[in-house]
């Protein structure tokens, strides 16, 4: 029997009603990646609760048109632009406002450690989120975790460090938020299984041959969720679910064999927890990322949300299926990576980032994503306990290897 999963490395016990989240003071938020899908939806939540939330800093890669609008609306004290040239242009545009514009990785780290920030929402995509997240934890900031790659590649560093610093790691993914909610009030009950739901994406019933012919446009058109391009492709390939399995292992301190992926096309049940007596607690709701985003920012309180309510009079059926691991190899490859352990999840993630980008550029077929990931994993020599420098070096190593093999 599995021991009780420990959320946030033991820093936050989901059954603890005295958690700091019940405080009603204003939550001061840094949004890393405020111009992306999760970032813009985070600002929707802030708009609805201006008396409870304040934006202290925002960031983008180079979308300064939207970032400028966000700064003018929310009036944060600091804005970070990863691209140095774009940052210089934004400084000129915002010269009429009392806002500092910082740049590069140093800028991301600076806004993640501001004294006036309480919680850092990490919504940037990719392994670039590792350093700002660790810096925020070092500074004692709570983390609203939307950057799953950080947890996948550095969960062995982040979770113990959060425990050491007394920092809460609050999940933003709808599935992990659902698990957290299903764990509320469990007291001494033991958990036997986590049931992680997946929509199956737009191609679930396709054969491998049909899958090889899908276009980028088709892969970006998710039937349920509105997401950024990288995550949309990951969802279609089921790599996203593989990343979520690894993330759940770290967030909830649970053996991967106790995590079962269940296909649920309606995406109304966001995940479930099965207890040892056979009882199953499921979290249900409409498919709107603003709900889990808000819960991470207001934990453990459920407040009015900008999302619409779930109308059960319009629901016709809940259906379930099993993953097709023989066709959608992103999930079994992820499970293999986390079971191998050490740096293998880093290799899995790095290869997927490379393959995902190449597919979006039209350079490879959809099914080649799996071939590239498996190739990189077979090549990779595992480091048992990689530090940050080694994790980032693995990304460069995988990139070089794949460019030499596939970038004709």
Give me a quick take on this structure:
The chain is an alpha/beta fold. It has helices spanning 37-48, 64-74, 84-93, 104-112, 130-138, 148-165, 174-182, 208-211, 216-220, 229-237, 239-251, 290-298, 330-340, 344-360, 368-379, 388-406, and strands at 27-32, 53-60, 78-81, 100-103, 119-122, 142-145, 169-171, 191-198, 259-263, 269-275, 280-284.
Give a verbal description of the structure.
The chain is α/β, with parallel strands linked by helices and 408 residues long. Helix content is 43%, strand content 14%. The strands form two sheets. Strands 4-3-2-1-5-6-7 form a seven-stranded parallel beta sheet, with helices on both faces. The protein has a four-stranded mixed beta sheet with strand order 9-8-10-11, with helices on one face. Strand 5, helix 5 and strand 6 form a beta-alpha-beta unit. Helix 11 packs parallel to helix 13, helix 13 (330-340) runs antiparallel to helix 14 and helix 14 packs across helix 16 (388-406). The protein is globular. Mean pLDDT is 92; it is low at 1-11 and 13-22.
